[in-house]
């Protein structure tokens, strides 16, 4: 009888095996084997978003050998998903389920996008120097996706570069430059990001034949946010972020716990003078929850990701005192659930911080993978 390869195992047997797997790591590994295994195994109904944790880095780059994906819950269980492409030991982005990897942290010469579920690699021209990479859409499902790269400019400033599939090289996106990007989101052909000085920059890519986006700067957004506080004294702001959720742009305002509402969500209203006002507060996100912090922000549905809690804001923060590193704000009750800094990382002699959120690309369904 001729030997049968692993890729030829009956679909019924593979489905039975996968139904008995209980950990995220095992489900991920079985989907990485080959297209036949992906098409034959059970639907991964409980994929979680993870926290990309890394040691303190230089120039915004995380050595991939010194980072891990960890679940945003007590114990911060580590997630293993296999070895990255050889020769790319540094990570500079975690957008849309892809890791942006480079060959050197100071003077990179090669840049690749890697999707760990299917092991797909996409090579891009490599700007140097380089701090971070953001993707507007999933390259495997969108024909109009583009990438944004950032470069250091002075002590806290940075330049933004643009690359579209087919471009020979990167082009300057915003010649003037901005402060360092704190968080960014994409919606309907526009990129919205808040810099470390709490200015909002809106880059509109719906410019027809003109390849350059139209960029608008909303200065000192912090002063607009501070007007929201109606308390007897002004409460310090913990952070402010923009995030796309169910086709709408939302603004997340985080306060320290002394505020009666530690997390508030608003729908921004854009004025004719290119300013923004916050009047309509959102109290219920339905089945959605928001994930904010450093890097790209996003929303997920608790129906599609049943391991998360609905109507919450998940916040990955720098653990200054190594006490908490993830905060979960429950919008319906104003309760804050703090997730402690992992004991395993406390024992390390170097500082670990939550670099960004990461989740596997969508849709995770058995019929989307082709040979």
| Average pLDDT for all residues | 80
Structural class: mainly beta
Provide the β-strand percentage band: 35-45%
Query: How far is the N terminus from the C terminus?
Result: 27 Å
Largest sheet: 5 strands, antiparallel
Number of helices: 5
Strand order of the largest sheet: 2-5-6-7-8
Number of strands: 27
Question: What proportion of the residues is helical, as a percent range?
Answer: under 10%
Assign an overall shape.
Answer: globular
Radius of gyration: 21 Å
Q: Are there runs of 5+ residues with pLDDT below 50, and where?
A: 363-371
Ordered list of secondary-structure elements with their pairings:
Elements: H1 11-19, H2 24-32, H3 35-40, E1 50-55, E2 62-63, E3 67-70, E4 78-79, E5 90-93, E6 99-102, E7 111-115, E8 120-124, E9 132-135, E10 147-153, E11 157-163, E12 171-179, E13 181-187, E14 190-195, E15 200-204, E16 214-218, H4 221-226, E17 237-245, E18 248-255, E19 263-270, E20 276-282, E21 288-293, E22 295-296, E23 298-301, E24 312-316, E25 324-330, E26 335-340, H5 343-346, E27 352-358
InterPro entries: F-box-like_dom_sf (IPR036047), F-box_dom (IPR001810), KIB1-4_b-propeller (IPR005174)
Protein name: F-box domain-containing protein
Domain KIB1-4 beta-propeller: 86-329
Task: Characterise the protein shown here.
With 371 residues, this protein is mainly beta. The two termini are 27 Å apart. The C terminus is likely disordered. Helix content is 9%, strand content 41%. InterPro entries: F-box-like_dom_sf, F-box_dom, KIB1-4_b-propeller. This is F-box domain-containing protein.
